[in-house]
Design a protein that fits this description.
This protein is α/β, with parallel strands linked by helices. Helix content is 33%, strand content 27%. The strands form 4 sheets. The chain has an 8-stranded mixed sheet with strand order 3-6-2-1-9-11-12-10, with helices on both faces. It has a 6-stranded antiparallel sheet with strand order 14-15-13-16-18-17. It has a two-stranded antiparallel ribbon with strand order 4-5. The chain is globular, with a radius of gyration of 23 Å. The model has no long low-confidence stretch (mean pLDDT 90).
Length: 415
């Protein structure tokens, strides 16, 4: 029999009726001959409620260790509830099922509480249970440190749990969510968005990191590294209702016709920080970005230009919106050492990106992007590129206009 890991997100298990639908989907895969493990998220809204409780409890007292480990104990409980409820529902249907917590498998993680990374998943216990015909219902989002403490994997971490478990047991991974696949762009913005039958790991990784909310970035990295076949599909159907549904995330070689551009992604979670009057000599960038890195502030787009004053430069870079205030604080701490004139922050910006493996072999992709935006009067503030993507920073007010213009410019509504 083949092994299959099924993952269900918070909206898919939001209440008991939806959990019953999930149980029917799981039962159908079991009846089809698969050895099944199921990874579940907390019920929709539950994690936010738990996080609010930890905020209300307040920080640790002076001189005591921060309570990040206890934060994880609290927020990991949402998945435990869902795992137990689904296992009970499957048993009520006459199926052999049991719940598994992260520490029982074990999913071994580092001790970066709240954003832990998986170090190892010894597959023996879980694989033996699956081979014996048991449906393993696993609490996602959680692991255990080597000294026995619960550690959570960051928001969206259940995707990572599922892919990592599939890699460990040598199975495929189906990610069930509230959409029926990966689209060329957000259908809420562009009604002509088309569902992709297949998308490469690299394209999906760029889409996830650039704002598409379908899969967590780390889960795609793992799938690509271990060649785990991943399918994204909807949990809001009954078994057999939509044969062949979903989008397959796979190696580029498995996609016969490579599109120049596969999708348009956007993110409003951006802030632009501008530094003026920087001394134009070696070591300046190292001082600024070294300080930001030491504070775990992730920097994305960077552009530097000469200022009007001789031997000085201006620099702009982007960070996540919630890191903006801290980034400005950190930059100001090195202002005396570096010697720049001023810093400004603009949170009214958005990043819009086009992604496609076909960019490697086709010229003119950037020209089409810039022309389409110019025709709509959208001004570009910052540009960054990689081998398979081009991103631009624009005024947030033009986000939807830009997405629709680019979607049409690359013929994505014709797929």
């Amino acid at each position: 029999m083949s092994r299959l890991v099924m993952k269900f997100g918070g909206t898919s298990v939001a209440d008991l009726e939806r959990i019953r639908r999930v149980a029917r989907l799981v039962a159908a895969e079991k009846a089809a001959g698969h050895d099944v493990a199921v990874v579940v998220s907390a019920m929709a809204g539950k994690t936010n409620e738990l996080v609010a409780w930890t905020d209300g409890a307040g920080p640790a007292g002076a001189g005591l260790t921060p309570s990040d480990d206890e934060y994880d104990v609290v927020v990991a409980s949402g998945e435990q509830v869902t795992a137990g409820l689904l296992a009970m529902t499957l048993r009520n249907m006459g199926l052999n099922a049991r719940s598994w917590m992260g520490w029982q498998i074990p999913i071994v993680a580092d001790d970066a509480h709240g954003r832990a990374r998986i170090d190892d998943i010894p597959p023996e216990r879980l694989a033996a249970a699956m081979d014996a015909g048991e449906i393993a219902v696993i609490a996602g989002f959680q692991g255990v440190t080597r000294d026995g403490r619960i550690a959570t994997l960051g928001r969206g971490g259940s995707d990572t749990s599922a892919v990592a478990i599939a890699a460990a047991v040598g199975g495929a991974c189906d990610i069930y969510t509230d959409v029926d696949g990966v689209y060329t762009t957000d259908p809420r913005i562009e009604s002509k968005a088309r569902k992709l039958a297949k998308v490469s790991y690299e394209e999906m990784l760029e889409m996830a990191s650039l704002g598409a909310k379908v899969l967590q970035t780390r889960s795609v990295e793992l799938a690509m590294a271990y060649h785990v076949p991943v399918r994204v599909l909807s949990s809001f159907v009954e078994p057999g209702e939509a044969p062949g549904q979903g989008t397959i995330v796979c190696d580029e070689e498995e996609i016969v016709e490579k599109r120049i551009v596969s999708g348009v992604a956007y993110s409003r979670d951006e802030a632009k920080i501008s530094l003026f009057g920087l001394p134009d000599h070696p070591g300046v960038s190292s001082s600024i970005f070294g300080a930001l890195a030491d504070a775990n502030v992730n920097v994305d787009m960077i552009v530097q230009s000469h200022a009007r004053t001789a031997d000085t430069a201006n620099m702009e870079f982007t960070v996540g919106k919630r890191d903006a205030a801290r980034a400005v604080e950190i930059v100001r701490t090195v202002q005396k050492e570096v010697g720049f004139d001023d810093v400004q922050v603009n949170e009214d910006v958005a990043k819009v990106s086009v992604i496609g493996v076909g960019m490697r072999s086709h010229a003119g992709v950037a020209k089409s992007m810039f022309s389409a935006l110019a025709e709509k009067g959208v001004n570009i503030q910052v540009i960054s590129t990689s081998e398979i993507k081009i991103s631009v920073l624009i005024d947030a007010a033009y986000t939807e206009l830009a997405v629709r213009a680019l979607h049409a410019a690359y013929g994505l509504d014709q797929l």
